[in-house]
Amino acid sequence: MVATAVGLALVLAACGGDDDGGDNGSGGGGDGGSAEGPTGSVSINSTQPENPLIPTTTNEVGGGNIVDAMWTGLVSYDSETGEPQLAMAESIEPNEDFTQFTITIKDGWTFHDDTPVTAQSFVDAWNFGAYGPNAQLNQYFFGPDGANIAGYDAVAGQTDDTGAFIEGSATSETMSGLEVVDERTFTVTLGSPNSLFETIIGYSAFYPMPESFFTDQAAFIEHPIGNGPFEFVEEVPNTSINLRAWEDYPGDPKPQVENIEYRIYADLDAAYADVVANQLDILDKIPPVGLAGDVWKTDLEGRSASEPLTTRFTSLTFPLTNTQAWADPNLRKAISLAIDREAVIAAAYGPGNYVPANSWVPPGNDGYVEGTCGEWCEYNPERAQELYAQSPGVQGTLLISSNADGGHREWVEAACTSIRDTLGIDCQGDFNPDFGSFRARVNANEITNPFRTGWVADYPSIQNFLAPLYTTNGSANDGGYSNPQFDELIQQAAGLEGQEALDLYNQAEELLAEDMAIIPLWYDNGQRGWSENVNEPQFTWKGYVDPLSISVKS
């Protein structure tokens, strides 16, 4: 998700230490709730979702957390480890070469409007997400570098150089690889072997949709309907989105709180002040104002935690489709070499609170290789000046675009100081006031200078840190990077398992280092806090609170 998320991401999107008190994997439960059902209300910090709460077009954190609370997919991910496990699926049976899967869903499951969840609910939702004219941001996940469902190309159609759908290029509305067998069973035939299929389909793009979505999408957008543990109550734009526990939820575990308010903050500092004052119950990210001098450990003593995250990283992306200004790799490498990552982290967040990145895949993931970025992620003023002199240089002021909220202004300004001091060029931040307005510019391909990107994993695999972000027309490929060799390696790896697959992913990373179209900056350490009103909650492998773990104190 673009946060990135991760991305997912997406952060998208999409994506790690010091520790003030140990792992919080046990989370919630404790003395909250009651035997009679969920009790109490809690508030969680959030951002205004970038898009309507439709799973096939929600790929950023603000909307993603809410969608995940409202839906249950075929597969879920263990809150602590991220390991995939059956959820709505009763069984998923692959053939010998991972080209066909027979999926049977559990009986008796309904949507929040009491209509049944059937095999057709999944097939219709997936076809809608893949259909080119629908322009869904998660369309990519049904194609060759995602699930790779047979017939995807005919449904997706073609796009132009900017990624926009070419009218009339889709020759079918349904993928040939999807077939409903009966009310609870459907088969999925793939275009080529995909050993990650069962892991990928836990991502929100693969959630089922009720019939009402297809008959009246405008009404659905006003009041979205899922099949998960929490149901939609109301949205107050730019203020809050409110959910309540769905009393007929057949899954396990059950909600422990009755109401959740996802409270939207334009300024993370305000969210931090509220959680310190017990006016906000859960904060999943401590902003620079709290990290500086480690004051958060005192402000939130006994109700905070930190642990390295393997799912989040921050990067700097060059726009390659709407300008030729950044076409020279030497210029891109020079800027990366001019960023003193440790100094920027110290200035923006306090020393040691984030970890300088040396790879496009965070440590802790299978396939992580230390230093795949090579010399290009090391601070080297002399080498930076040498490469800059060999490049066309920057015309005028170097701008770095970002949203000003979420604690990003501080690091952008610190990075500009490092670049300015090293290369002797003017560098300034180009800020949008909030995440939504910033991402609107990114998605519209309007930014012509380097801009902030981030990623939170959609599913636990090295593939998710590479394919969506850097394959040609990938769902989170914000800069338009394209390398046919990279695409080929990613597609080959999808059909393999174990070390054979990891070797190909690592080769693909080497190409990213050669091109340096996306600069890795740092990994997240996952500092978070909560109020005195709730028991200690569990945070997921993505670093966000697990809503099913939240309980209020008696």
UniProtKB/TrEMBL annotation:
Gene3D superfamilies: Dipeptide-binding Protein, Domain 1, Dipeptide-binding Protein, Domain 3, Periplasmic binding protein-like II. Residues 83-476 form the Solute-binding protein family domain. Residues 23-35 have a biased composition (Gly residues). The lineage of its organism: Bacteria, Bacillati, Actinomycetota, Actinomycetes, Jiangellales. InterPro entries: Peptide/Ni-bd, SBP_5, SBP_5_dom. Residues 40-53 have a biased composition (Polar residues). One of its GO terms (biological process) is peptide transport. It comes from the Bacteria. GO terms for cellular component: ATP-binding cassette (ABC) transporter complex; periplasmic space. Pfam families: SBP_bac_5 (PF00496). One of its GO terms (molecular function) is peptide transmembrane transporter activity. Residues 19-53 are annotated as: Disordered. This is ABC transporter substrate-binding protein.
